[in-house]
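hiii so my PI (J.) wants the whole complex modelled not just the main chain, which honestly fair. so below is everything: two entries, each one labled with what it is. i double checked the lines twice but i was tired so who knows lol
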Amino acid sequence: MSEQQLRAAAASAVAQALALGATGAECTIASGSEFSVTVRLGEVEKLKEADSCGAGLRVLLGQRQGSSYTSDLSAEGIRQMVASAMEIARITEPDPFAGLPEADELGQLPQDLGLASELTLSTAEKIDLAKRAEQAALAVDPRLTNSDGASFDSHTGVRVFANSRGFLGSYRSTYCSLSAVPVAKSDDRMERDYWYSIGRDHTRLESPEQIGRRAAERVLRRLGARKIATRQATVVFEPRTARSLVGHVFAAVTGDAIYRKSSFLLDKIGQTVAAPGVTIVDDPTLPGLFGSSPFDDEGVPGRRNLIIQNGVLETYLLHTYTARKLGLKTTGNASRGLTGSPGTGHGNLYLAAGELPPEELLRTVGTGLYVTELIGQGVNTVNGDYSRGASGIWIEDGVLTYPVTEITVAGNLSEMLKNILFIGNDLEFLGSTAAPTLAIGGMTISGVQ
Amino acid sequence: MSLSSSFFGSKFGITERDLDRYLAEALGRGADYADLYFEYLATSSITLDESIVKSATQGVSLGVGVRVIAGERTGYAYSDDLSPEKILKAAATAACIADAPAKVETVGLTPARQHDLYPVLRAPIDQPLEERVQFVKRADAAARGADARVIQVQCIYADSLRHVLVATSDGKLSFDRQPMARLNVSVLARQGDGTPQQGYSGGGGRVGLDYFTGASAPEAFAREAVRQAIVQLDASEAPAGESVVVLGPGWPGVLLHEAVGHGLEADFNRKGTSVFSGRVGQKVASELCTVIDDGTIDSRRGSLNVDDEANPTRQNVLIENGILRGYLTDELSARLTGGRSTGSGRRENYQHIPMPRMTNTFMLAGASTPEEIIRSVSKGIYCANFGGGQVDITSGNFVFSASESYLIEDGKLTRPVRGATLIGNGPEAMQYISMVGNDLKLDQGVGICGKDGQSVPVGVGIPTVRIDKMTVGGTARA
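here's the output for the full assembly
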C-alpha cells in the first residue's frame, strides 16, 4: 500500500470509531520491508526478505478506553479492528486522566530530519559487504578460528498516525546495519564478541574491513581472562556499556514510574542527583539520528528535554496521560507499538560528552576495572539496586592490562550517579541511546575470595 | 484431523493442492527441503492499575512463512496476506537461496504424529470478557487487603489462541490449536517513608479459565506478591563474593535454562560456538544431576503437541547423572548432523525462522530433604525466587538475578537480603552441585525465553539444590 493509502486507512479507522459512538480515537499504522542476510565462514547461511504491516487503534468512550490491532489493512480488516476496540472498551472503567492531547499540543517538526534515504544495494552487494566484514575479522589473528557470522540488515518503513482531534501525519524511515561476530579460541576457552555500524543508508556505514577488525580486536582482548578477588574499585564503563546506565536513568524518570512511586528519582526534581558535570538529554530533533522523529506516538512534536543538567534533575519524561496524572504538560515522549495504550519512549537519549579522551581518562583513574560487557537484568529502578554480570579489562597504572571475566559489578544507582568521577569525550550514536566513557567510583566487584 | 476440517481449511479454504503448489514453488530452484507455516493468532489483555481497569486490548495477526533449505543455507520469506499470489511470491523469494536445477519433489502430505496435551474445550480468549476482567479486580482487592503497607498494585491478565498449520516438502502435515493464559500481579510496599520495595507473582499455562482457582486463584498470586514485597522491606545488603548457594524449588530452575539449556541448543553446537560443543558423553555436571527438556507435559506453558516444524515434541534427556547425552535439535541441525529432530524447532511467529529452543527444562529430584540441605550449610545464601537470567553460550558464563534471598547461618535461614545477581560458568557451576532435594517443583507458568530476537514461552523446574561455590554480586563484604 502507498503512503497515501495508509494515511487514508488510518483516517478511516478514526472516522469509523467516531461513527460508532467513540468520543475520541487515534490510529497508528506501520508498514515496512525487511531484508537480512547472514554469511558464515564465507558462505551465505540465512537470507530473509519480506514486507509487513499492521494497524493499532485506541478508542475513548468518555473516560473509558480500549484498544485493538490487526495485521489486515483491508477495508474489512479495519472495520473489524474498530468493532473490536469498541467491544473491549466496554469492560474498562472510567479513568479521570484518560484522553488525547489538546488540539494545540498536536503538530510536527517542520525541518527535514533526514530519516529516510535510498537503499540502492543489490542482494549480491549486501552479501559481499557481509563476507568482507567476516573475512577482515578472521584475518586479524590465527586464534580467530570460528565465526558466528556477519550480517547485513536493512529496513524501510512508513509510520502513520491519525487522531480525532484532526492530526494526520506520516513519515518514512530507512536504516541499514553491518555486523561481524568472530569467535576466538585459546587453550580451552572460547570467546566471542561483535562490532557493528548502523546508518540511514550504506554510504554512512563504517567500512566492512574496519567493522571486522574492531570485532576481532574485541574478541582477542578477552582471551586468557581471569577472575579477580572481591573488592571495592572504580569501574570505567566503555561507551557500549555506559549507555545502559543512561537507559536506567530514563526508566526512573518516566512519568509512569513517578506516578506509581516506582522510581529512585521520585520527588527529586530540582535536587542534585548526579555528580556536577553530568548532563543527560533526550532530543528527538537531531537530524539523521536513530531516535529522531517529527512527532511522538500521540501526534505531539518532539522537543529537546534536559533531564539532568549539571547533576540537577530538571524534568520527568511525560506523555499526555502521565502529564495529567502529575498535573504537568506532555514532554512529547509518547511511545507505542501497535497494541495497547501509549507508554513513555525517548528520542536520542544521551549523556553529554566531557573533555577527557578515553586514554587520558584511564590514566587519571589509575587502577580499576574497564567494563566491556554487562549481562543479566539485575537492575531495580524502584530502589536503585544495581548488580550485573560483567567482563572487562583490569586497569593498572592507568593502562589496560589483563582481561577479567565471571565477576559482577554492584552498587546503587543513586550513589553511582553521584560517584561519576570522569566523563570521556567519546560520545557516538550507534542507536537511540548513547554515552561516552564513564568512570564511577566506589563500586563493589564480586569475584573469587 | 483432515485439512478440510482444520482451521485453515475451513476458514481460509486452503487445500492440499494449494500446499503442494506452494511447496513446489519453494523447491523450484533446487532446494533440499521447504516448509510452510500458517499462523492465526488472537490475543487479548486487561490491565488494572490504581484499582481501575485502565486499559484492555485485543487483536489478530495472520500470516504464512515459507522456509527453504539448501545445504547449510536457509531462505525465508513471509506474507501477511494468504492470497495464492502473495504466498507464491514469498515462496519464489525464499527459493532464491538455492541455485541449481530442481531436484527434490514434494511428497504427498500425511498428518504428523502429535500429542493432545491441552484439550481445552473453550479457550480463555473465547470466554466472555466480563468473566476474565474479574481476575484483575480480585487480585487487586486481595493484594490491598493483605497488608496495609501495600501502596501500589498492578495486575495484567493476558490470553491468546494460536492456530498453526505446518506442511513440509518431505510430507509432514500438522495442525495445532494452542491456547494460553496468564495472570501477573506486581505490588509495591512501603514502611513509613522508607524505600518502596517490589513483589511479583503470577501463573498460567495452556489452560482453561478453571485453572485460576484454588492454589492458582488470583487471590493466591496476589498474596504471594505481597509476601515477597513485605520480606524485602526488612532486607539488608546482599553479600559480595564466593558463597555456598542453596536454590529453592521451582522458578530457580532458571539456573538450568541459562547454565546448560541454551548451550545445548544444536545450532551453536553444530557451529562449534558453544562451551558444550563436542562434549556429548563427557561429564559436564555432578553425578547428582539429570536434566530433562520435556515439551510433553500436560497444560504447561512450554509444552507443544507438535513443534513449529511438524515434529512431535519429546522428553529429551540432556544430562544423565552428570553425563552430557545430547543436544536439542531442529530440522536443519538434524539434517546437517545426520540425526533426528528432537522436536525442538520453534519460532516466535510466522515472521521468523525456526531455531532449536527449550520447552520445559528441569532437573530430576534427588534424595536429600530440603531441610537437610539447608542444615548442611554453615554460611551461605538461600535463593527462593529469581528474576531473569542471561548466558554467553561461547564462554559459558551465565547470570541470574535473585529477587528473594536469605542468609544461611549455622544451618538456618536467618535474615532476608536484597536482590543480587549470581554469576557462574555453566559446566563448572554444574559440577559444584553437591546435594539435590526430593522436592522437584515446576514454575508457575510465566517464563519467556529470548534468543536472536525471538521470544517463546517456556517453563523451568528444579528441586532444592546446594551449589558449593558461586559468585554472589551483592554489595556487603561476605
